[in-house]
Amino acid sequence: xxxxxxxxxxxxxxxxxxxxxxxxxxxxxxxxxxxxxxxxxxxxxxxxxxxxxxxxxxxxxxxxxxxxxxxxxxxxxxxxxxxxxxxxxxxxxxxxxxxxxxxxxxxxxxxxxxxxxxxxxxxxxxxxxxxxxxxxxxxxxxxxxx
Length: 146
Prior knowledge:
Elements: E1 2-13, E2 18-23, E3 45-58, E4 60-65, E5 72-84, E6 88-91, E7 93-94, E8 97-105, E9 111-114, E10 117-122, E11 125-127, E12 134-137, E13 141-145
Parallel strand pairs: 1-3, 2-4, 3-5, 4-6, 5-7, 5-8, 6-9, 8-10, 8-11, 9-12, 10-13
């Protein structure tokens, strides 16, 4: 379990992949033929605070991608700015808070929100060429953009 982490004052430039990444879907050597059930060995990300991050010209600004049965939990990102080639992703996550976050995407929506619950995006700016700056997919519950 990765929890109770505090990240502050990070500056990044030209990150090829994701500037911020929490992903429970990943490739492994010798992957099992059947997906094992979630248990105490399943990775978990929760209770992480990220402040004053700037990332310019990344591939993807943020990607939080949990499992349906083990969501990413309680991540707070504040006072941060991201520019990227593609859309950000919040998927299979709960308790996500973005406060004063600026995301600019060169293509598609600035952010895709998929199967998230209890997420709050306050005083955020989303810029992209797409008509819809935030794309909602799946079943989202109690997602607030203020």
